[in-house]
Every structure is written in C-alpha cells, then in structure tokens.
Design a protein that fits this description.
mainly alpha
C-alpha cells in the first residue's frame, strides 16, 4: 500500500485484496462508446462444428491425444484408449482389427448419444 514490496503471504493478500476491491466494487459507470463495436471485424461462422463427428474424426482425435498423461475423472488414461483402438499393420483388414473397430465404434456411439443430448454422463 505504501509502495514497499510485500514480503509475507499476509502482506501479498492485503495488496491483492485492495487491488481487486477497487476493480470489482467500482460503482461509477465508465464511458462506453458502442460505435467502437462496429470497428471490430466479425468472425467466420464455423457451421460445420454443428455436425456430429465421423468415426474417422474420433479415431484421429484419440490418436492425437498425448501419451503418459494422468487419467481424467473416468480413470481411463489416453494410453488405455489408444491401446483399445489400436489397429494392426493393415487397418483395412477387418479380420485383424475386429476388436479395435468394435471398441472405436462403441466410443463413437457414446459420443453421438452425448452429441445429440440423449445421454447425460453426469447422472
């Protein structure tokens, strides 16, 4: 507050408290010129994001997930997901990849249910 450097956690907390109190408890209205919004270029609409992902999109996203990371709330790591959808050398040979294709299809189906709001994974 007096310009000296805070040296303890309590002093730091007091400085932050005073700073944010000024910002968030400011009751004076600030001047605003709405015409400034006209100077901002509009963004492109990405309507393709409204479409549900294809099976190939899901497979590609799973392959791009980082290795060796901690699991999410489900407890399943990205490494485990990748192992479940791994395909053998010839991904076009369905006989060699039945298990992997089955699992990626299940993951894709779950995603589509969630996408179409038919499934609530929180309940």
């Amino acid at each position: 507050p007096d310009g000296t450097m805070a040296t303890t956690d309590n002093e730091n907390a007091e400085v932050f408290c005073q700073h944010f109190a000024k910002i968030f408890h400011n009751q004076s209205s600030l001047p605003c010129d709405d015409t400034a919004l006209d100077l901002i270029d509009g963004c492109t609409d990405f309507t393709h994001l409204e479409d549900a992902p294809f099976l190939a999109d899901v497979r590609a996203a799973l392959h791009r997930m980082a290795n060796g990371k901690a699991p999410g709330p489900s407890g399943v790591t990205s490494d485990a997901l990748k192992a479940m959808i791994w395909t053998k050398d010839d991904p076009d040979n369905d006989a060699d990849n039945d298990d992997a294709n089955c699992l990626i299809t299940v993951i894709h189906a779950m995603l589509l249910d969630f996408w179409s709001e038919n499934t609530d994974f929180d309940s």
